[in-house]
Amino acid sequence: MMRLGLFYIVALCTLFSYELVESKFKPRTTDKDLSNSPHVFEGEHSAAYDHDAFLGRDEAKRFDDLTPEESKRKLGEIVDKIDLNNDGQITSEEMTAWINKVSKKMLLDDVDRAWKDFELQDGDKLSWEKHIDELFGEDGDLEDEDDETKKAYSEKDKRRWIVADADGDGKLSKLEYLAFLHPEHEPKMRDVVIKETMEEVDKNNDSFVDLDEYIKDLWSPNSPNETEPEWVKTEREEFAKRRDINGDGKLDLDEVGKWIVPEDYNHVQAEVTHLFSESDADQDGKLSKSEILIRYDLFVGSQATNFGEILTNHDEL
């Protein structure tokens, strides 16, 4: 039977958590098409996010085991591939094209793995019955959950399934399943993601997210006496200044949407800007191979977690 743990927990739930010993931080903004790691963790930019965005998820483990010298050598090979006109300089356009390509490959690889586990061929479609059986049937990932939990998951998945099913035949093609699996990446799935988030965060079921619910969604102390970190205090200010647009002390569905899937924010472009700001030493607006290799830790350093096989399957990118 298919093991849906990775797909379901990471892709089918809007909420994903990132836990450290000192506190629990749960990023909410849906930029998971670039990484499963939080873009900003406790107020600091995440190196793991940079690695995921630059390489793809599976390759990080490979780089984790490399020496700095080997990491730099392999990074140099990647830089040569990014440099489309072979002029020895990486422009922001070339970096943007690369990260977009890596992101797309990660998403398609997820679907390919799922199709293989579902024992389907490329042209086959996934039925709702098979999806549910893989979740709740014998050896399914949610087999042991109680009936109420199963009902909640089923209702959420059905709502998502209907929107992803573009031709309305009740089954999902690989492309439609991509929208189902990664709704944060598909504009047509935006309303579904927003509604799921509201249901997840709105604990008192009043159809709003108040400040307390907002903070509890982002951070959970490990003990009642744990001191609130500075970044949480900053988030309280953000709630009042930027999230609560109409100033009524709570977030409605529209405000939740602007929070988790902001329409005026391009995650790829933001990541490119960040990488350039951190590594463009001479500030000429381009990155030389030496500038990138000097900051190899930013691009492929040992803190990375799970990537795609870019170097071994180099013809795919």
From TrEMBL:
It is found in: Endoplasmic reticulum lumen. The keyword Ribosomal protein does not apply. Keywords: Calcium, Chaperone, Endoplasmic reticulum, Glycoprotein, Metal-binding, Repeat, Signal. The keyword Signal applies. GO terms for cellular component: endoplasmic reticulum lumen. PROSITE patterns: EF_HAND_1 (PS00018), EF_HAND_2 (PS50222). Pfam families: EF-hand_5, EF-hand_7, EF-hand_8. One of its GO terms (biological process) is protein transport. It comes from the Eukaryota. Residues 70-105, 152-187 form the EF-hand domain. Residues 1-23 form the signal peptide. One of its GO terms (molecular function) is calcium ion binding. Probable molecular chaperone assisting protein biosynthesis and transport in the endoplasmic reticulum. Required for the proper biosynthesis and transport of pulmonary surfactant-associated protein A/SP-A, pulmonary surfactant-associated protein D/SP-D and the lipid transporter ABCA3. By regulating both the proper expression and the degradation through the endoplasmic reticulum-associated protein degradation pathway of these proteins plays a crucial role in pulmonary surfactant homeostasis. Has an anti-fibrotic activity by negatively regulating the secretion of type I and type III collagens. Interacts with PCSK6 (immature form including the propeptide); probably involved in the maturation and the secretion of PCSK6. PANTHER family: IP16409P, RETICULOCALBIN. This is Reticulocalbin-3. It comes from Schistosoma mansoni. The lineage of its organism: Eukaryota, Metazoa, Spiralia, Lophotrochozoa, Platyhelminthes.
